[in-house]
Amino acid sequence: MAIPSTSVVGNPRRERVQADAYGMGDDVDSASDATSAVSWGAVFAGAVGAAALSLILLMLGTGLGLSSVSPWAQEGISKTAFGVTTIAWVTFTQIVASGWGGYLAGRLRTKWLDAQRDEVYFRDTAHGFLSWAVSSLATAALLTSVIGSITHSGLQAGAAVAGGIASTAAAAESAQSGTSTAPMGYFVDALFRQGVTEGTSAEIIESPDGIEMPRRMPATPASPAPLAEAGRIFMTHLHKGALPAQDVRHVGQLVAQHTGLSQQDAEQRVSETYARAQVSVREAQEAMRQAAEAARKTSAYAALWLFIALLIGAFVASLAATLGGRQRDA
């Protein structure tokens, strides 16, 4: 018995009725079960298109951003404007690239003859989401350095203070080795400067011509050993508070021996120099904390806005896939 050549393509219900009438219901069921609900070819095609477009737009945004900033004062856009435009461009990139990838995934997928309308809508949405997920992973792999810099700055924010401690340790080591290139070297050198400084007194003598002149003790040039010793003493007590009296006395003896100051004036110079060193360290620590706080806030805002942009991209990709799928089945 010949089967009438009636076309049933595009009408699943009519296909089922006619298949049952001619005894082919089991064949249709087996064909439907063997067909996957996911068209991975369409998903990967949409992901590749979205990743490529995203890469191009990010490169364009990088070029535009670098051309709008300037290291010179009063030139280029402000930091706030740069941040806002960066967020807007990343969001625009996600909308365009994800929408294009989702549309491709929905338009290129196979036609499901045995799926109901709600099921087709769900599958198209899933195809758009899958294309967005694959393209996001591919873009992250291609732009590891860019995404890594965002998270790296946040991780390094908390370690900034620890870096200051390491710098202090390096300064102590430098002082121990007798060099004056460390941050504390300036204050150590100031201790052993020759002559009378402001805030110190000296014994006044009268010259034969009637001119008053300060009396100076015999001075010997400072060798690296006392410089290193004074640096170690300062570094040991710098973060603990005031300098102990015995250390003030001992460093004062070294200063008096190598500068010609009296013991009293030398101890006064030690106390004043130590106080200035403490103020300098506190200012450096405060600047370091502010920089760490600014880096932490920047990393937090960047991560939050990147999350929002990616979420928008996922939604747009899913929506565009349903549009492409509807046009595919039309």
Produce a short descriptive summary:
This protein is mainly α and 330 residues long. It has helices spanning 12-21, 25-34, 40-68, 79-108, 117-142, 144-158, 160-176, 185-191, 224-237, 245-259, 263-329, and strands at 204-206, 212-214. The longest helix is centred in the last third of the chain and has 67 residues, at 263-329.
Key terms for this structure?
330 residues; 11 helices; rod-shaped
What is the secondary structure topology, with strand pairs?
Blueprint: H1 12-21, H2 25-34, H3 40-68, H4 79-108, H5 117-142, H6 144-158, H7 160-176, H8 185-191, E1 204-206, E2 212-214, H9 224-237, H10 245-259, H11 263-329
Antiparallel strand pairs: 1-2
Helix pairs in contact: 3-4, 3-5, 4-5, 4-11, 5-11, 6-11, 7-9, 8-11, 10-11
Describe this structure in words.
The structure is a single chain. The chain is mainly alpha-helical. It has two domains: 38-69 and 76-156 and 304-329, no CATH class; 160-196 and 220-291, no CATH class. It is built from eleven helices and two strands. It has helices at residues 12-21, 25-34, 40-68, 79-108, 117-142, 144-158, 160-176, 185-191, 224-237, 245-259, 263-329; strands at 204-206, 212-214. Strands 1-2 form a two-stranded antiparallel sheet. Strand 1 (204-206) and strand 2 form a beta hairpin. The longest helix has 67 residues, at 263-329. The two termini are 35 Å apart.
